[in-house]
Design goal:
The chain has 412 residues and is an alpha+beta fold. Helix content is 39%, strand content 17%. The strands form three sheets. Strands 3-6-7-11-10-9-8 form a seven-stranded mixed beta sheet, sandwiched between helices. It has a two-stranded antiparallel ribbon with strand order 1-2. A two-stranded antiparallel ribbon has the order 4-5. The longest helix has 35 residues, at 71-105. The chain has helices spanning 13-32, 37-48, 54-63, 71-105, 132-148, 166-180, 194-197, 238-246, 287-302, 362-368, 384-392, 398-401, 405-408; strands at 108-109, 118-119, 184-185, 191-193, 230-232, 251-260, 272-282, 308-315, 318-327, 351-360, 376-383. The structure holds 3,4-dihydroxyphenylalanine. 3,4-dihydroxyphenylalanine (DAH) is lined by residues 235, 237, 277, 315, 318, 356-358, 379-381. 3,4-dihydroxyphenylalanine (DAH) binds next to strand 10 and strand 11.
Length: 412
């Protein structure tokens, strides 16, 4: 029950003492519960409001009601109480402000009235403060000053500027070269079905690339038919199929993206790496177009003096297929550096293998409802990380993925 001022009938010293004690104990209790400026205003008004505040009620219910002979005594008592109440209320204001500040600065949690505060940061709640509530108010003030204070001798706050990752930068350059030739950019999912990653690309069911040795499969897919089983795409080639399904020829696209293989990491392997794939399908596209396009792209990427060179190869989704090499841009295709030392970049061969390519296999068109008697096209795919390694003379692919800022900073 909140305290109410009793109507006095007994004005003896003993009765006045006990009434005053009761009032002061209520004052003390209510004061302790004040823990914000809002609380404090309510508290102040309850005790000091001119209209019907507790002090005003003392005048009416005690002083005015006192019979003549007691007036002096009661008046003195009421004056003393007024003093005490006014001082107490004023003191608590400082405390309430400190509570608000502390809350604002987030130095103390659990500051609600009556709760046991959990100290956080350097300040404890007033109750727990070693040197009492007054010291606590001082500490809050000090902390506020420090937090607002400006020390111009301190070093400024530096906001390091981010930079494009060297692999992304390389991919963007490759994509840029093809964009300039009128190619558009397509992307596809990294979690792919067996159908898009293998079947529609003409991989026979027992092809070794489907082996768990090479592919990371999503677990728990055994109950599904093979073609629907999920895996992490091992190359960007499935996006060729996805694009041809939604687009009729002519198609000219590049596909940058992340791919995954079950390869343990070493200096030249990473279970996650990047490819840029390309596909051009139209009427009358020939192997000559493939060679001309890729030769141009390599000159744009590595310099006008590089030469290209194609060797027969095999991919299930192209026929014929080839691997393309560029002349080594470190030793100029000599296989030896100027000082006579063997060139390590091209392993003394003068040539660097850059990508796989070929003419789209007619079987692939069967999966996307293109007519192989009407259209033809070429495709290619290259490892962007490998090209970045070559371009920047980095000797360990792991450096690209370890996230060491000291390494990455060099590419700003
Ligand atoms: N997908 C192949 C791989 O990851 C690379 C490739 C080869 C892509 C020939 C092609 C291509 O588009 O025609 O090894």
């Amino acid at each position: 029950m909140p305290y109410t001022v009793p109507k006095l009938t007994d004005f003896s010293t003993g009765a006045l003492d006990s009434a005053a004690r009761e009032l002061l104990s209520a004052l003390e209790q209510e004061s302790a519960a004040v823990s914000s400026e809002n609380d404090w205003k309510v508290y102040r008004d309850r005790w000091m409001a001119r209209k019907n505040g507790i002090l005003t009620q003392l005048n009416d219910l005690w002083l005015k009601a006192a019979p003549g002979p007691n007036k002096r005594d009661v008046g003195q008592r009421v004056n003393e109480l007024r003093e005490t109440v006014t001082t107490k209320v004023e003191q608590r204001r400082t405390m309430a402000e400190a509570f608000d500040l502390a809350r604002k600065m987030n130095v103390v949690t659990g500051l609600d009235a009556g709760s046991t505060a959990t100290p956080r940061g350097t300040l404890r709640s007033p109750g727990e403060s070693k040197f009492g509530p007054k010291a606590w108010v001082g500490d809050v003030r000090k902390l506020l000053l420090e937090s607002e204070g400006l020390d111009i001798t301190l070093p400024g706050i530096r906001r390091p500027i981010g930079a494009e990752h060297p692999v992304i930068k390389t991919m963007n350059e490759i994509v840029g070269v093809f964009r300039n030739l009128g190619y558009s950019v397509e992307e596809g999912p990294e979690i792919e079905t067996d159908y898009y990653n293998f079947e529609a690309l003409n991989f026979p069911p027992d092809h070794p690339a489907r082996d768990t040795q090479d592919t990371l499969f999503i677990a728990g897919q055994e109950s599904k038919p093979l073609r629907d089983r999920l895996l992490l795409r091992t190359h960007t080639s499935p996006v060729q199929i996805r694009t041809m399904q939604k687009m009729r020829p002519p198609v000219r696209i590049v596909i940058p993206g992340r791919v995954h293989r079950n390869d343990p990491p070493d200096a030249s392997h990473s279970p996650m790496f990047h490819q840029v794939e390309g596909l051009a399908v139209d009427t009358n596209i020939t192997f000559g177009d493939l060679k001309g396009t890729l030769d141009h792209a390599m000159k744009a990427l590595f310099g006008a003096s590089v030469k290209t060179h194609f060797r027969p190869s095999f991919f299930p989704f192209t026929e014929p297929s080839a691997e393309m090499f560029v002349s080594c841009f470190i030793c100029g295709g000599e296989g030896r550096l100027r000082d006579g030392q063997g060139c390590r970049t091209c392993k003394l061969t003068g040539w660097i293998e850059i990508l796989g390519c070929g003419m789209v296999d007619p079987n692939v068109y069967g999966f996307v409802d293109y007519d192989p008697s009407k259209v033809s096209g070429f495709a290619f795919g290259m490892g962007a990380d490998r090209i970045a390694l070559l371009k920047y003379g980095v000797d360990d692919i792991q450096l690209f993925f370890n996230g060491d800022v000291r390494f990455l900073e060099q590419f700003i």
